Every structure is written in C-alpha cells, then in structure tokens.
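Slide 14.
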Amino acid sequence: MATTRNNDRHGFNSGKSLNEQVSEILNEKTSYQSKRNKLVKLGLSRDEVAILFANFAKGGVKVSDFDFSKLTFGVEIECYHCNRSELIEQGSANGIAIHSEGYNHQDNERYYKIVSDGSLSGIDNNEVVSPILKGNNGLASLKHLCKALAAVGAKVNRTCGLHVHIGAASMSDEHFCRVIRNYKRIEMAIDSFMPESRRGDNGYYCRSLRGCNLNYTTKQGIIRSFGSRYYKVNTQAYLRHKTIEFRQHSGTTDYEKISHWVTFLAKLVEYSYKHEITADVTMIEDVPFLTQEEKIYFTNRRNQLDRSRAAL
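Slide 15: predicted structure.
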C-alpha cells in the first residue's frame, strides 16, 4: 500500500494482528513514554493505552478478540472506456485472470470478472468485480488490476461508483448492527471527502443512512428495516453474499484511493467490534479509529475537493 506503516494495524503490511503488535511493544526494553507513543501511533486511544498498561502490570494483555485479517473483502469497480478483450489481455500481462461474463452475482475465489451494468454511461462501460480477497495478497492483486485498467485507459464519470464488500459471515448480530450504526454516525465526515454526487441523500443508487431508524439488535431486523440495497451501506448483501456492501465511494480506478478506502472500512469494522459511536462525527479529524497520518490523507482529499468547488 502507498500508506504508512501505521496501516500494519490490519495485518495488511506486517502480517501481524493488533494483539501481536501491542504485545511486542509492551515487552520492549524501552521507557513507558516510548511504548505509549508507539501504541498511540497504532491508533489506540489514551484510555485504551492506560488500560493496556494496567492489564500488563497484572500479567496479561488482551487488546481485541476481533482480527480483521481473518475477514474477506471484495471490490466492484464501475468504469467506461474499458474494452473487455483488451482488459483481459492486460490482466494476463499483470499476472491476474480476468473473465468476461454476463450479468450475475456469483462469487468466486479465482478470477476477476467483467460484467455489464445498465446504470453506467459512456462507451465500453463495464463493472469489474474482484474475486474474494484477503489481506496483503488481496491488496497486491487489486494493485495489478489497477495497472491493467490504467493500461487500457479506463475512465470514470459521475455514474460510476466503487463498491466494497466486507465479509460478515462470522460477525455476531451485535457487531453487524454496530457497524451500520457507526457508519451512520460518521457519514457526514465521509461526505466531506466525497464529491457532491456522493454526499447527503444524493441519488437513487446511494441513499443516506441519516434518516434511517437503526435501533435493531439482530441482522435480520436491521436488514429488513432498509428494504432496498440502494443505500450508502447495503445490508441486503448479507442475504446473498454474507457481506456488508459499502456503496458510497465515487468511481475510481486509482489504487491509492481504493486501498485507503478498503483500509478505512477495515478499521471501521474492527472498531465496531466493541465500540459504538454515540454522537455524530462531522470532521475527519474526529473519526476515532483513524491514525493521524490516515486523517491527513483524507483531510487532504477533502481540501482538494473544497478548492475545486471554490474554483468553479
């Protein structure tokens, strides 16, 4: 990934779980302050760090029972100027298998597929769907796909989106519901680094969660409450794929943007295992599960969009 070592918290770069990284830091022969600083850089809050040190002094540390590295994810990239035969050829040149198929919802673990999507505009518009991916290898595979898309000159417009599925088969009802509620609480902060077409309740295919009643305690309850998959978070995906689908991101074929968004969602899911956000978060700077460097990345995107709108 193009991001820093702080993203190791997900095991994407280091291959280590959060528990393993924290244990290593706590067992270092360094000062309290040095250990504290490293734990904060991992994204832990000051309260969490204090609890860790207290537990460590008693002879044991258990940071989290949830390990994102065991979850699967997948992406759907909507684009145009994407000739199928050319993309298949470029995929082969970049070491990934790409198949051309008719519209379908079949999952697989072996190859990318190119399918049609009637919601897209532009010549040679297609949706490129990843296989079921996992960890570092999954991100490396996505990077190869993005190189192939760049080689054929694939483009995006406002009809295109980037959809990310996070595996939810092993989530408890409580965890599943908390992910959805936490997304609703930070939706305005996410809006700030999205283009106008992806903000608020803008568009039929990507509705806001802001007006939804999400006070449910079971997967089935919260899924039924939506009644449609066309929300920024699609809970209906669980019924077919055993995933949560995040639909808000604007169309892109850029690996840096895609990998940052996958990591953002990974951290949301991880944080939601035990934590619930109880008040609306409107600023990226206040998102509780992001590291400082991750906040800088997304605030830079927000500021760039703000400058672009001001120039119009």
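Speaker note: The chain has a mean pLDDT of 88.
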